[in-house]
Amino acid sequence: MGNEILTEVLTLLNDVNCTKILCCADDEGCPHPAAKDSLRSAGGNILYFEFIESSKTNRYMTRSLWFDKKVSVLIITPDKKSFSITARPVRAIVSGKDFQVFYREAAEKYGIDLSTVWVLKPEEIVEQSLQKRIAEESERRPYFIHLDRLKKEA
Questions:
Q1: Cβ contact 9:120 at 8 Å
Q2: Whole-prediction pTM value?
Q3: Residue ranges per domain, the chain?
Q4: pLDDT by residue (tens digit) across 39-90?
Q5: CB count, 10 Å around CB of 95?
Q6: Does domain 3-129 have CATH number 2.30.110.10?
Q7: Is 115 within 8 Å of 94 (Cβ atoms)?
Q8: Rounded distance, CA 91 to CA 17, Å?
Q9: Strand partners, 39
Q10: Which residue from 89, 61, 87, 85 is spatially nearest to 75, judged by alpha carbons?
Q11: Would you say 13 and 39 are in contact if contact means Cβ atoms under 8 Å apart?
Q12: Which of 13, 11, 30, 29 is nearest to 21 (CA)?
């Protein structure tokens, strides 16, 4: 993963016009996707503000941290480009000086209490936009083509 694409995509996390979805797995490995506007980037990492201590997302994020499991973040831009980030939770901030800074920021921005600040380390970024994926697959697998496209005109 190049620093240029990392910086570009992480910058999108701070764009209020982008849709952001966090996906972690439950106890049985079933995906749990949730739209999370509180995802943002900071210093090459992803921060996620969780407001509800007992939420499923908070519980599944804790499990991911404890058992070294990856999570996924999907970003969809207003012009319908999409990027999937595979990340690993590396820290849950629930107290201390850093937490107080984030707590005040969240109170001002969202008007509610903050439970946890999750720090995620990005490991892989893939552009998922349809046209980009079609071009990549056509180049990597030129023989994977639907038969009706091979039909010769009579």
A1: no
A2: 0.84
A3: 3-129
A4: 999 989 999 999 999 999 999 999 999 999 999 999 999 999 999 999 999 9
A5: 8
A6: yes
A7: yes
A8: 27
A9: 48
A10: 85
A11: yes
A12: 13
